[in-house]
Amino acid sequence: MSSENKMDSRKVQQAVERCKSKGLRCTKLMGLTIELLVRTGKPLTVSEIISSAEIADRYDQASVYRLMTRLEEKGIVRRLGLRERAASFVLRHLHEHDDYIVCTSCGVVERVEIDCPVAPLEGIIASASGFRNLEHELEFFGVCPRCPAA
Amino acid sequence: MSSENKMDSRKVQQAVERCKSKGLRCTKLMGLTIELLVRTGKPLTVSEIISSAEIADRYDQASVYRLMTRLEEKGIVRRLGLRERAASFVLRHLHEHDDYIVCTSCGVVERVEIDCPVAPLEGIIASASGFRNLEHELEFFGVCPRCPAA
DNA sequence: GTAATTGCAAATCATTTGCTTCGTA
DNA sequence: TACGAAGCAAATGATTTGCAATTAC
């Protein structure tokens, strides 16, 4: 666990460093939020961030929304839809792109352990469609092993 | 164009038929909505449906929301909306699964003309994760040819 | 010091819900 | 006729915005 914590704090530092290099100011809220994202390692909604122990009642929702928007614009986090009403955010690690699988019954989200099959197609689609700077989002939905069948 | 209209009305009839066979009642609003989805052939939000010429001011938003929910539950339409705030809906044609590309600048949505590369993986992911009844959602994002570079 | 960030309050947008009325099977 | 669907109004939840007070660089 201590090695995990070390890895985590390195990740936090790297992310904060990236923010700085993109011209963002490094604030307390930013640090806490990035740390939370690293520690949980899962997509979090703004309301989950807000209600985390460190942030609860000490920061305003609007500030968190604005922060996440900034982080997304600078490519620090990725915004996911996950078919939920509220958007979720995950840290972007360099050269990593995770896909997720969501339980349509209980809502748990898990990372899909597979090489993303879509990335190689982006070039083809870009030239066929004329679109530039392609990205993609891939999500799977199903019923998780812990939920009863419908 | 007349041949297009013929194909369209056949599609509408088929979709309505499917609704009926699933136990839904065939109402005026359902007919108009399905016709609109067929005619435009693109994902539409509830507010786009509401503001269409035929439906505007004659039906209630809540009714459209409830209709779309029913249609989705019965597998008649597919709900999309990975990055937009409002969900969009497209008709599901049997054995067809379309993926879309969205312009992050102006918002246009186009169908991606490529065989979906993800479907074959669903079996693998299902057994690796333990999830059942897998589906997926794949969307591409980029800047369309008509938008200037950022 | 100055521009970016936050706090607070209010506005907006998407969606849902309760309850009554209507229309289809 | 009975039950699903629509109308209407109000509630909820997520996100955005304006403006004044703060704070990082």
CATH fold-level assignment of chain A: Arc Repressor Mutant, subunit A
Q: What characteristic shape of chain A results from the CA principal axes?
A: globular
Q: Can you tell me the CATH architecture of chain A? A: Orthogonal Bundle
CATH homology-level superfamily of chain A: Winged helix-like DNA-binding domain superfamily/Winged helix DNA-binding domain
Strand count of chain A: 6
Q: What structural class do the secondary elements of chain A suggest?
A: alpha+beta
| Helical coverage of chain A, percent range | 25-40%
Strand percentage of chain A: 15-25%
Distance between the termini of chain A: 39 Å
* Poorly predicted ranges of chain A: none
Kindly give the count of domains of chain A.
1
SSE string of chain A, helix = H, strand = E? HHEHHEEEEHE
Largest sheet of chain A: 3 strands, antiparallel
CATH class of chain A equals Mainly Alpha
Tally of contiguous helical segments of chain A? 5
Q: What pair of chains forms the biggest interface?
A: A-B, 36 and 37 residues
Q: Spatial order of the strands in the main sheet of chain A?
A: 1-3-2
Radius of gyration of chain A: 17 Å
Mean pLDDT of chain A equals: 91
What would you call the quaternary organization?
A: homodimer
Topology:
2 copies of one chain form a homodimer.
Chain A: H1 2-21, H2 28-40, E1 44-45, H3 46-50, H4 61-73, E2 77-80, E3 88-91, E4 100-103, E5 109-111, H5 122-129, E6 132-143
Parallel strand pairs in A: 4-6
Antiparallel strand pairs in A: 1-3, 2-3, 4-5
Helix pairs in contact in A: 1-2
The first copy, chain A, binds a DNA duplex (25 and 25 nucleotides) through helix 4.
